[in-house]
Amino acid sequence: MTNNNILWQPGSEFIENSKLNHYCNWLKKEQGLSFTNYDELWKWSVNETEAFWESLWHYFEIKSYTPYNRVLSSFEMPGAKWFEGATLNYAEHLFRHASDNEIAIYFGNETAEISTLSWKDLKQKVASFASYLKSLGIKKGDRVVAFLPNIPEATIAFLAINSLGAIWSSTSPDFGVESVVDRFAQIEPRILIGVDGYRYNGKSYDKKDIVNEIVSKLPSLEKVILLPYLDKESMSSFSADFVDMNSVLNDNKAKLEFVPVDFDHPMWVLYSSGTTGLPKAIVQSHGGILMEHLKYMAFHNDVHQGEKFFWYSTTGWMMWNFVQAAFLMGASIVLYDGSPTYPDFNAMWAFSERVGINHFGTSAPFLVACMKRQTDPKSKNDLSAMRSLSSTGAPLPPEAFEWTYNHVKSDLWLCSMAGGTDVCTAFVGGNPFYPVHKGEIQCRALGVSLYAYNDEGDPVQDELGEMVIDKPMPSMPESFWNDEGNARYKASYFEDYPGKWRHGDFIRIDSKTHGLIIFGRSDATLNRHGIRIGTAEIYRAVDKISEVEDSLIINLELEHGKHYMPLFVKMKEGFDLDESIKQKINTQLKTEYTPRHVPDEIILVPDIPYTISGKKME
Fold it and tell me: How far does Cα 328 stand from its chain's mean position?
């Protein structure tokens, strides 16, 4: 691959109309700052950290009920304090560009029907649900969790909870009981919003027993709200104390109000599995996420008022949270519930045509799968509305770059991006000023002081290194839930380079194009088809198989976007690894977690290697 292999070049009109260009013009007019190229702008944004983030506060006209004392009172990581004194609300900013008669949400599923929700109706349903939550005594700081598919009701619930200053957390209904409880039990929620089931790949999955079991294992719950999604009559299968969600969404007298909270007030809890223990319960703030999402949606996704923003996701992935941020730009969000390849691999492309999606987001493995199937979306679908295509979840191979331009659209802005649940954004991604080079992510995002460190801990270019961020960002976690002294937080990111964030990816930064290539994870967390899986989850499930003595899991990222995840098992004396044991292991993993946890192959080994400190040598 050559670094000068350009697949797309932004035209002068594209650059001129971009929000990044508008911001540059604003900086010149308002602050007398002028930059000849993006690289100069990026260097200013990371060298003058406070000046950059303060400029965004004014550029985006942040609504704060009280003034901030200073932009950044501590550069320490972890522990940076942003905009202390400011009080605001994330959801309030999502509604700032609402126009009653315009469409806020487009929704599709495997039935091929597309429904819409206007801003007026969305506002009323959010107000109604918030009013009901208030009647239950839900207030600032309380936790409300959701076990829901990617449907409008999930967005309604999130916005209502957020408007009250309560804390949101969610998983998708393809998670097993233990996986859900491992997450939610940590934060002791007062309310659970559940669903009776969901559809995927042409099949219906009844989740009534799962919901009942989850409820039985969350003693902190005071109320359960249930959405009858598969079957409108399913409420009869639950306790009479469960409330039908539909019954609390139609209070036409409710008024939407927003509770101001401190800039660093917890907004939601996301989960990222580590190699040991329970999933990390990551706490992110109203203000930090607001500032980051405004920046990324505007400058690196270039989302405009009235456009339609889509990302194929579930409520268990941070990209669902990220999608909601398109409201900040006055855009409509597009939701889809179901398999991306049902009834065939053209499903999402046909859906895009029907809705008229302007910004299409997906995972790298999906694009690779379409490439392997030799699909040709452009010959079957009118994708003229599509302006950008974003890819994340795993490195996008060069061949998939070429396939996108040859078989999706030749004049498309392909935004390969990478970040993490840890910050609910991308560290590196799209740039409307730069061309797209085959196999490369275009740039480091503004305000992200990111470098590739060699083995000596020095920043390098044109060679492989550890991805390290050496200055704080507002969306970095406020903390992990119940993490005394930030011990687990520090161990997750700051052990190798004290005071600097080590993300766990191997990268190379090109000195000429300023683009980046990611070569996969440098830690033991598995990256399974774009979804991170903690090895501890695998072990907890396999340990319940009585015939297995020990196990070890790895995931190999191969060429051309392929993955291979073998599970090595040591059997107890007197037992053989036969097909029945393999089936039992796979069923256990699928039942407790998700089908993505099932290995490609199960291999018998005589022993499992450990380090001196007692860790498995993954």
Answer: 17
Q: How far apart are CA 531 and CA 533, in angstroms?
A: 6
Supply the pTM of this predicted model. 0.86
Tokens at residue 559, please?
């060429």
pLDDT, tens digit (0-9, with 9 covering 90-100), for 433-457: 999 999 999 999 999 999 999 989 9
- Residue 1's pLDDT is 38
* Helical (H) or strand (E) element with 336: strand 332-337
Average pLDDT over every residue of 91-103:
95
What is the signed CA dihedral for 362, 365, 368, 370, rounded to 10 degrees?
A: -60
Backbone φ, ψ for residue 478 (5° rounding): -70, -35
Cβ(305)–Cβ(96) below 8 Å: no
Q: What is the mean pLDDT of residues 126-145?
A: 98
In this structure, what token pair is assigned to residue 47?
């060298």
d(CA 321, CA 425): 10
Percentages (nearest 5) of helix, strand, coil residues in the chain: 30, 25, 40
- Average pLDDT of every residue of the chain: 93
State yes or no: cis peptide before 78, omega within 30 of 0: yes
Say which amino acid occupies 579: E
* Selection from 91, 54, 481 nearest residue 260 by Cα: 91
Closest CA to 436 of 406, 461, 405, 462: 405
d(CA 245, CA 155): 13
What's the pLDDT at 305? 97
* Cis status of the peptide bond prior to 606, with omega within 30 of 0: no
